[in-house]
Amino acid sequence: MEYLLGIDLGTSGTKTVLFDREGRPVASATREYPLYQPENGWAEQAPQDWWEAAIATIRQVLEKSGVNAEAIAALGISGQMHGLVMLDEKGEVLRPSIIWADQRTGEECEDITRLVGAKRLIEITANPALTGFTASKIMWVKKHEPEVFKKCRHILLPKDYLRYMLTGDFATEVSDASGMQLLDVPGRKWSGEVLGKLEIPESWLAKVYESPEVTGQISQKAAEVTGLSTKTLVVGGAGDNAAAAVGTGTVRDGRAFTTIGTSGVVYAHTSQLAIDQGGRVHTFCCAVPGAWHVMGVTQGAGLSLRWLRDTAFLPEKQQAEEIGRDAYDLMTDLAKDSPIGANRLLYLPYLMGERTPHLDPDCRGVFFGLSAMHTRGDLVRAVLEGISYSLKDCLDILDGMGAKPQSMLLTGGGARSPFWRQMLSDVFDCPATTIQSSEGPALGVAILAGVGAGMYESVEAACDQMIKTGEGLSPDKKATKAYADYHKLYVKLYPALKDLYKQLKQL
C-alpha cells in the first residue's frame, strides 16, 4: 500500500500526519516551539526550531505507524505564510525569521506603496502593502540591518526552508508566494517590476512551481536524520489557508469555507481572477493550477468568545473542568435561551482592530444596546451573532467580486458547535456542511502529494476520493430574515464610530 505524508508548519508547532490513499489518518505527531518578541509588536521564530520539530514528528509518525518509509510515495508541506527566512551563500540562516504576526514594518509599507504606486501594486500583487507580508520585512532588514542584507543570497518562506532542509532545493509554489507581495499574482510568476523598484535581486528568490508539482526528493542527508526514504517525492505544497481549502474540498467554483479560530476566515475558490481594488480582501493563487482564491479575514472571531469566557464566565470555565465538558458548550447553552438579536444587543468584534472590510487597526469592540435587563446568555448570543455578522461582511464582498458560493464548509473550533453552525448557515443564507476529517492543512498537502505522485489525475479528483463530508445544514428562512434586519443596523455602527475610534486612540 502507498502512503502520503502531510507536514503542517504552524505558528505554535509543527504537525505531521501520515495518510493512506483514501485520506484516512494512520498516525500523527505534534511538536511545539517558542515565539520570540524582542520588542513590542515584533514576532520572530528560529528556523532551526521548525527543522527540529519536523525531524521529531516525522520520526514519531514512522515509529507509531510501523509503515516502511519506502511505502511513502510523496509528501507535501503546508506552512504559516509571509515569514522571512534569509540565508547566506552557504545556505546558513542569517537571522531569526520575522513571521506573519510581526507589525514593525509600517514605514516600509509606505515606502513600497510610494515606490510601486498604490494602484499598480494591487494590479500586480492583488493586495495593498501590508505589515504582515514578506516584502516589507525584506525592506526593513535592508534599512535596519544592512550587514545582514549584504550577506543574503536566498530568501525563503517558512515551509520552503523546511523543503530546503529535506531536499536541498530552493523552491516555492504559487499560493505561498502570493503572500510575499513580490509575485505577479495574475501571471503566477515573480514580478520583475516590483523586484526592480524595491531593488531585491530575483536570483535570491526560489523557483516557483504549481502546488501539486514535484519540486524534488528527500536528500540522503535528510533521510539519515528523519528516517524517510530518498525515493519519496516532495511536492510544492501550499500556504496554510490554501492547504486548508484543499483539505476541505474547496477546489471548484461555487465552493467556499469559513473557519473560526482566533481569527475568522471566509475563503472562496474562483477560476476567474478577481481583485478588490480597495484591498479589503486578499486575492492569492490557490493550490489548484490555473485558479485563485479570495479571502476575507475577521481579526477577533474566536478571540472574542475566548475574551468573554475569561472575563465573565470563570464559573463555567471551572465547572467545565470539573465535569469534563467544554466551557464554550456551557456558554452556548445559555445563549440558546436568548432570542435572535439577543434582546436588541449588538456586538462589534473589533478587539484587535479589523481587516475585512474596514482595514482599520484603531477600531475596537463594542456592545451596542446594553441595558439592565440583559443576561449573560444575551452577552454570549450577541458575541456569536456579532462574529457571524462580521464574517457575513466578508462574504458580501466576495459576492460582489463574483465569487458567491453555492455552499459553505464550516471548519475550525467554532464549527464544533451545532448551535453556531446553524446560526452561520442562517446569517449567510447558504447551505452549510462540515467535513469528517479534522486534519485540515496536513490533509490538503497530502492530497497535493498524491496528485504529484500520479496517484490521482487532478486535485479535484483526489478531493472527491479522499474527503468525506459530514452533517448538512439548510438556512431557516424565518431566522435568515430576522438576522438580516439586525445585520442592516450592524453595518451602520462602524461608520458612525469611525472618527470616534481615532479620538479614543489619542486620549
Record keyword descriptors for this entry.
Nucleotidyltransferase, domain 5, 7-stranded mixed beta sheet, 507 residues, alpha/beta, single chain
Kindly summarize this structure in a few lines.
With 507 residues, this protein is an alpha/beta fold. Helices cover 41% and strands 21% of the residues.
Given the helix and strand composition, which structural class is it? Answer: alpha/beta
Query: How many distinct folded domains?
Result: 2
What do we call the CATH homologous superfamily of the largest domain?
A: ATPase, nucleotide binding domain
- Relative helix content: 40-55%
- CATH fold assignment of the largest domain: Nucleotidyltransferase, domain 5
Question: Biggest sheet, in brief?
Answer: 7 strands, mixed
Number of helices: 18
Distance between the termini: 65 Å
CATH class of the largest domain: Alpha Beta
Number of strands: 24
The general outline is globular
The portion of residues forming beta strands comes to 15-25%
**Mean residue pLDDT:** 95
Topology (elements, then pairings):
Layout: E1 3-9, E2 13-20, E3 25-32, E4 44-45, H1 47-65, E5 72-79, E6 85-87, E7 97-98, H2 106-116, H3 118-125, H4 134-144, H5 146-151, E8 154-156, H6 158-167, E9 171-173, H7 174-177, E10 183-184, E11 189-190, H8 192-198, E12 207-209, E13 214-217, H9 220-226, E14 233-235, E15 238-239, H10 240-248, E16 255-260, E17 264-270, E18 282-285, E19 292-298, H11 301-312, H12 314-323, H13 327-335, E20 346-348, E21 366-368, H14 376-400, E22 407-412, H15 418-428, E23 432-435, H16 441-452, H17 459-466, E24 469-473, H18 477-506
Parallel strand pairs: 1-5, 5-14, 5-15, 9-12, 16-22, 22-23
Antiparallel strand pairs: 1-2, 2-3, 4-7, 6-8, 10-11, 13-14, 16-17, 17-19, 18-19, 20-21, 23-24
Helix pairs in contact: 1-6, 2-3, 2-4, 10-16, 11-12, 11-14, 12-13, 13-14, 14-15, 14-18, 15-18, 16-17
